């Protein structure tokens, strides 16, 4: 199929901490699958990361780390465009323009804003945290995106993107394609290992909440050993009745490529101890190729920067077409 006939896919990850298996299963694994069948762009959204204060040295380090993790996970720069958001100025430009057209109430309703702002005093909440979704809308709309592969926590932001685009199109004529979120049912919300009621999160307080993609085998074994379980002893996938075990079964299934029903059969009559021991090895083995490739990439930061610069160039060309059309429609002098 010709490139232009393929569906366009866009997604982004913030370089704001250690990427974990929730990010991998909910997002990156989909990216790798989609790069073959679609026209895909994957971004490292550093301008989103600064909506909470960041140490500049660490931000730079984490930005390159996310790029290397994309590559180590199997995203191929020959198949997909990989780039850093701040290297394409059209994102901030369109983000601002969309800000001027988005009612405050719609931003205040966003669950992520409510959750993140609840953790600070009012004086500590930055305007950028509230305006975060308009920048995300800009990311998506600049590329005439059809599909946005994300975890469930981002569904609301993609829905808002659609209403922002619709409103703009109604007022100024057809400009943006209306994008849709793409969720993988089994992995859209991987739960914390220390608490099966909350999603696995980079910013969780406990170190035992998540398995980071670069955790050592011993760290992985330790975290799985102490992961919370449910009452009873059966290994089965039943989200309401057994949320913690269901989460571990889903992780097992994803890293082993075995369907959930096979895992339930394999562990019928066995206890949590046996299951957890095997799960740890499945995750250790599952992450091994990624970790090895990461180590190789780390030795060649210049090579990675080169890929990112080429990605930014291609992204800027494509984004440039949309931003030019938007400016013309708004009455800006070009
Ligand atoms: P945090 O984990 O600190 O809340 P985040 O979700 O705000 O991080 P990103 O790192 O940008 O931010 O998320 C990258 C991708 O990973 C997004 O598509 C997000 O939906 C997905 N994701 C994050 N946490 C999970 C999870 N627990 N399960 C599945 N997908 C997830
Ligand atoms: N908001 C997302 C990161 C993000 C994104 C995007 C995802 C920024 N821009 C565009 C998909 C498409 C998050 O916090 N996970």
TrEMBL record:
It is an enzyme of class 6 (ligase). Its EC number is 6.1.1.2. Keywords: Aminoacyl-tRNA synthetase, ATP-binding, Cytoplasm, Ligase, Nucleotide-binding, Protein biosynthesis. InterPro entries: aa-tRNA-synth_I_CS, aa-tRNA-synth_Ic, Rossmann-like_a/b/a_fold, Trp-tRNA-ligase, Trp-tRNA-ligase_bac-type, Trp-tRNA_synthetase. Gene3D superfamilies: HUPs, Tyrosyl-Transfer RNA Synthetase. A motif ('KMSKS' region) lies at residues 199-203. GO terms for molecular function: ATP binding; tryptophan-tRNA ligase activity. L-tryptophan binds at residue 139. Its main location: cytoplasm. Catalyzes the attachment of tryptophan to tRNA(Trp). Belongs to the class-I aminoacyl-tRNA synthetase family. Homodimer. This is Tryptophan--tRNA ligase. It comes from Candidatus Sungbacteria bacterium RIFCSPHIGHO2_01_FULL_47_32.
């Amino acid at each position: 199929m010709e490139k232009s006939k393929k569906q366009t896919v866009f997604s982004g990850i913030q370089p704001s901490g250690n990427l974990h298996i929730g990010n991998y299963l909910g997002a990156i694994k989909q990216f790798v699958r989609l790069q073959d069948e679609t026209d895909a762009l994957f971004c490292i959204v550093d301008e989103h990361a600064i909506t909470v204060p960041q140490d500049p040295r660490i931000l730079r380090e984490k930005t390159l780390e996310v790029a290397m993790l994309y590559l180590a996970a199997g995203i191929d720069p020959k198949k997909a465009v990989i780039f850093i958001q701040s290297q394409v100025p059209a994102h901030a430009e369109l983000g601002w323009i969309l800000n001027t057209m988005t009612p405050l109430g719609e931003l205040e309703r966003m669950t992520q804003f409510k959750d993140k702002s609840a953790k600070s005093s009012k004086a500590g909440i930055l305007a950028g945290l509230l305006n975060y979704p308009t920048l995300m809308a800009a990311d998506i709309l600049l590329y005439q995106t059809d599909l946005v592969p994300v975890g469930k926590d981002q569904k609301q932001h993609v829905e808002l993107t659609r209403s922002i685009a619709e409103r703009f199109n109604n007022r100024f004529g057809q400009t943006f394609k209306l994008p849709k979120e793409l969720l993988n049912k089994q992995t859209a919300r991987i739960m914390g290992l220390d608490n099966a009621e909350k999603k696995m999160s980079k910013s969780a307080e406990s170190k035992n909440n998540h398995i980071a993609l670069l955790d050592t085998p011993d760290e992985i074994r330790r975290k799985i050993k102490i992961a919370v379980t449910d009452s009873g002893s059966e290994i089965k996938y039943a989200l309401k009745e057994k949320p913690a075990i269901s989460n571990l079964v889903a992780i097992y299934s994803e890293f082993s490529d075995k369907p959930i029903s096979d895992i339930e059969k394999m562990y019928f009559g066995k206890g949590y101890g046996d299951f957890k021991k095997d799960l740890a090895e499945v995750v250790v083995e599952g992450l091994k190729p990624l970790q090895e490739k990461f180590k190789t990439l780390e030795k060649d930061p210049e090579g990675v920067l080169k890929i990112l610069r080429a990605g930014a160039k291609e992204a800027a060309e494509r984004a440039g077409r949309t931003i030019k059309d938007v400016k013309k429609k708004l009455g800006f002098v070009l």
